[in-house]
Structure formats: C-alpha cells, structure tokens
Design brief:
Rossmann fold, seven-stranded parallel β-sheet, 8 helices, alpha/beta, single chain, about 40% helix
C-alpha cells in the first residue's frame, strides 16, 4: 500500500501563538491528519477557551497547552524539558506568534503612536521581540532537538508584507483628517522571518531538518465592507482569503509531501504580490 505522505500520524507539532486567528487553521491541519499539537501562548484565558473548543471535536490527549512568553529563553527550555519528560519527540515547529495591532478609528490611542514620524519605540521592541526573537529562540531550542533526532520541519509564518509595502490608503476613508497606517514594525518582522527561514533551511539540512515559510495575504475576518472593498481592488482574485484556505498549504509544508522542499516561501495571497 502506498504511503500517504500528507499523514501526520504520531507527529508532535509545536505551534506558537496558539490562541491566535490563523493558529486555528494550523491546528486543524495537524489534528485532521492524525497529529498531536503542543500550543504555546501567553494569553491563558484565550488558550483555555481554544482547548475547550478543540476537546469537543478531538481527543484531549492530542491537545497540549503551555502558558508563557516565548521571548524568555528559560520558559522555552522548560517547555522542551517537559515534552522530553513525557518521552515525546518534537517533529514540527510552527513559528506563528506575532503581534498584529488593530489600528483603526476605534483604537485612537494607537493611531498617533504607529505613524512613522511619531513611532513608539516600545511598540517596535515588543513587535520584534515576539515576532523575531521568539521565533529565533524556539528555532534554536526545538530545532536543536530535531537535529539530534535527524528529523524535523520548521514552518515560519510570513506575510504578503514580507514582499511588498503596505498600501496605507486602504486603512483610510477619503478626506479623513485621521491618518491610519500599518505599523512599520510589522513589515520589518515579516521581512526578518524570510531571513530566518533561509538561514535555518541550510543550517540543519544535513540533519534532515527543513525550514520553509508561508506568506498569507489579507484574510477575511468580518472587516467593514468599505475596507474589504478597498483591499479587494488590490488583489487579482478580487477578494480576501477565507480563513480555511490555508489548511492544505500548511499541511503540504509540514508533512513529508514536501520532503525535498527547503528554504521556500509559499505565497497564498490571491496574486497580490505578483503585481
């Protein structure tokens, strides 16, 4: 019988930012294909809620939770040790954690702080800590374990903004006196993720540890109609992505179906970055 290379049977998958919007798609990709998830997030309440929702569908033994800050190396080492004590091997790491500030007219305190001429350096530090430092620490610790075991897959979550500059016009109504922008730190983090991906891809390649990235575009999440209309005009397919349109792409990159794919970035953006 031919082996199903998309199967994740008995594979243990760490997902950072496990309570986040896109994380649920990563989780479904794993659990629907017989893998086990180890979710890390610093938002205890949201992660517990996600656990409760998942346990209505899946065996709770397949869903493991860790509460804490991935920018603290001591915490990530503790997670690694706890997994080892359970005599579990880490097969896959999805570096998903990032900060994506909701900057709109309802969040006026952020508007001024995220404009480049007034940019708050504390936002910069926090964004780079979570999005880049956290990914580096997890890659360092869990990737080292994978290298020891001569098997592993690391998937980094990039963005269409890893390739293009945000068109800040989409966040603003015509003739509005308020200037809303995507924080510069988000673009810097997502560009940095590509560098981390390419470096890691070659670093442990001889240990059978691969590293790739996926670059999602705009995702439908009940945004105002005027906003989605403005964004859709920038996308050749004429619409935002549905949240579940990433599952198969994620599955390909974390499974043995992509066993000879290394250092690649898969764009899932409806063609936006082609323009």
């Amino acid at each position: 019988m031919k082996k199903n290379k998309f199967s994740l049977t008995n594979k243990n998958v760490i997902i950072t930012g496990g309570a986040g919007l896109l994380a649920i798609q990563h989780i479904y990709a794993v659990l629907e294909n017989d893998g086990n998830v180890f979710l890390i997030d610093n938002n205890k309440n949201k992660l517990k809620q996600r656990f409760s929702e998942l346990c209505k569908i899946y065996d709770k033994k397949r869903v493991n939770l860790f509460f804490g800050d991935i920018t603290k190396e001591s915490f990530v080492k503790k997670v690694n040790k706890k997994i080892q004590l359970k005599k579990k091997k880490i097969h896959i790491l999805i570096n998903n954690a990032a900060i994506d500030y909701k900057v709109d007219a309802k969040h006026k305190s952020l508007i001024n702080k995220t404009q480049l001429e007034n940019f708050d350096v504390n936002i910069w530090k926090k964004d780079l800590d979570v999005g880049l430092l956290g990914s580096l620490i997890c890659t360092k610790i869990f990737g080292t374990e994978m290298a020891k075991n001569k098997y592993g897959v690391i998937l980094n979550i990039a963005s269409d903004l890893s390739f293009i500059s945000p068109d800040n016009r989409i966040y603003n109504k015509k003739k509005s006196p308020i200037k809303i922008v995507k924080p510069v730190s988000y673009s810097v983090v997502k560009h940095g993720i590509l560098g981390l991906t390419r470096y890691t891809a070659t670093y442990w390649a001889d240990k059978n540890v691969r590293c790739n990235a996926i670059a999602p575009g705009g995702i439908w999440n009940n945004q105002p109609k005027n906003f989605t209309k403005r964004v859709s005009k920038l996308i050749p397919m004429g619409r935002l992505s549905y949240q579940n349109e990433y599952i198969e792409s994620i599955l390909y990159l974390i499974s043995d179906a992509s066993s000879y794919t290394n250092g690649e970035v898969l764009k899932v953006d409806g063609g936006r970055t082609v323009l």
